[in-house]
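Quick one:
INPUT:
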């Protein structure tokens, strides 16, 4: 379900990052500044052989430095990503069964993917991530007052279709503990954790 949803959302996905379209009136004070700050931290990661898993439209892939490969299951997402991040190579594939040899990368980066995995998927993903890369960097949303840390959300697209999506949001220190790593950056909206 989540795969079909993102394929359908590919051409309007960046509206979420940019506060356009359906997100035009969404109340997110300080969002642009927080996103720009996060992008700066991503650009500040030392250049490395990096695999961006579930790279989507390449919105964050753009900022990764070094020899960068983006992977996603969605052809529509990969088409946008190739336009937005021409410095990277892109591969269609499954994040839970990565089509790479052991130790192929220095770093596996992933933004807004780990948060959509339930327990079994999380364990499969972490095993795959650690098989192909020495370091793992995960980006997600910070838990704020009153929010449910995990929930099924109803998402709507511009064509009126409705989708059910599982989503977690994180207390930064708890995410770091879950991954056995450390918080690299947190602000009002975003957290980025690095783990071995
Ligand atoms: C919320 S988007 C995140 C996109 C991008 N990383 C970002 O932060 O803007 C989640 C992405 O995960 C991809 N995805 C979902 N399940 C996947 C899987 N099993 N293998 C590869 N990609 C997957 C979707 O196609 C979508 O592009």
């Amino acid at each position: 379900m989540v795969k079909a949803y993102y394929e359908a959302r590919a051409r309007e996905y960046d509206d979420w990052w940019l506060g356009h379209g359906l997100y035009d009136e969404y109340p997110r004070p300080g969002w642009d500044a927080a996103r720009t700050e996060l992008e700066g931290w991503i650009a500040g990661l030392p250049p490395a052989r990096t695999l961006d898993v579930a790279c989507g439209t390449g919105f964050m892939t753009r900022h990764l430095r070094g020899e960068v490969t983006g992977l996603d299951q969605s052809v529509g997402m990969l088409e946008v990503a190739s336009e937005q991040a021409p410095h990277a190579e892109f591969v269609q594939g499954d994040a839970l069964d990565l089509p790479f040899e052991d130790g192929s990368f220095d770093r596996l980066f992933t933004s807004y993917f780990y948060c959509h995995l339930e327990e079994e998927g999380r364990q499969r993903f972490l095993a795959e991530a650690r098989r192909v890369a020495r370091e793992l960097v995960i980006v997600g949303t910070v838990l704020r007052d009153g929010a449910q840390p995990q929930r099924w959300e109803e998402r709507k697209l511009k064509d009126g279709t409705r989708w059910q999506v599982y989503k977690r949001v994180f207390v930064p220190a708890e995410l770091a503990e879950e991954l056995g790593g450390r918080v690299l950056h947190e602000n009002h909206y975003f957290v980025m954790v690095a783990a071995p």
